[in-house]
Every structure is written in structure tokens, then in C-alpha cells.
Amino acid sequence: MIRIREANSSDVVSLQNLIQEWIVTRKLFPSKGGVDFDDLKKFVCGSNQCFCVVAEDEDEKNLVGYALCTFNYAVWLGKSIMLENIYVKKNYRLKGIGKRLISSVLKHSLAKGCRNLNFYTEEEDECKPFFAKFGAEDRTVTEGWLVYTLPHESILSIVDRQN
What we know:
Layout: E1 2-6, H1 12-25, H2 37-45, E2 50-57, E3 62-74, E4 78-88, H3 97-111, E5 117-119, H4 128-133, H5 139-142, H6 152-162
Parallel strand pairs: 4-5
Antiparallel strand pairs: 1-2, 2-3, 3-4
InterPro entries: Acyl_CoA_acyltransferase, Diverse_Substrate_AcTransf, GNAT_dom
Family: Belongs to the acetyltransferase family.
GO molecular function: N-acetyltransferase activity
């Protein structure tokens, strides 16, 4: 039986393994240092900036999926939630677990007064139909939104130039 629940500190090692699995699956190899899992533990288990829900296989006593979210504020909408990452192990997919994770995220976000859920996905992501079932809108198409990232090296360079 799969149980959806909020993550706690005892989940961090399993969560770390799932995140590593997702990174390898997506062929995302972080530059210089990667993910600091001590920071992840503090962020997930002791922060009001973030929350994480997990899917636990109670029979196998292990985590099989997660949804990691952060809060943000849109000046034209108010409080929002950012779905930073959702992942379900391959052999547990197409069993409704992702839908249950999203539903849990949405309930949590409404309880916190959030007005909408935002997320990024790759152009070729096989999850696009999954999100479309929920009524997700591609703002790139409808409003021309583009997403930019300032990498860590650029941040350091800018700060160094200011000093």
C-alpha cells in the first residue's frame, strides 16, 4: 500500500537516494559540488520556505516518490507555490502515485493561502501530458514567458566585481 505523507527528518537519506536517481535519470550532473544534502535536510525538515511530500510503500518500507516545493510571491497574484521537483520510481509509475503527490501538494498550498502552482519542465519531457491533465497552462505559449537562470559562477563574478 502506498501512503502519501509529509516528509520528515528520518526520510532524508531515502530522499537523497531518490533525488540522486532523478539526477542520473535526467542526465543532470551538477557542476562543482552538486547538492549539499545537509542543506537539503535543513531546508526540507526545518524550513517554512519549503515542504516535501513523499510516497511511501508501506509493505516494502521505502520511499518510492516525492514532490519538493518552495513558496514564492508573485506581485500580481500573491503567494504561490513552486513545484521544484516531482519524481516517482520507474516501477511505480502509472499507478496514480504522481497524481496523489500533486493532489497533496495542492491541498497543502491551498491551506497556506497560495493562489497558483508553478513549475518548469523540459520541452521534450514525457511528463507534459501528465501536467496537462491537471489543467496546467504552458505560459511560454500563452504569454511568452521565458525562464532565465543566473548560474552560481555568474553570481560570484558579479559580486566579486562589486567589491
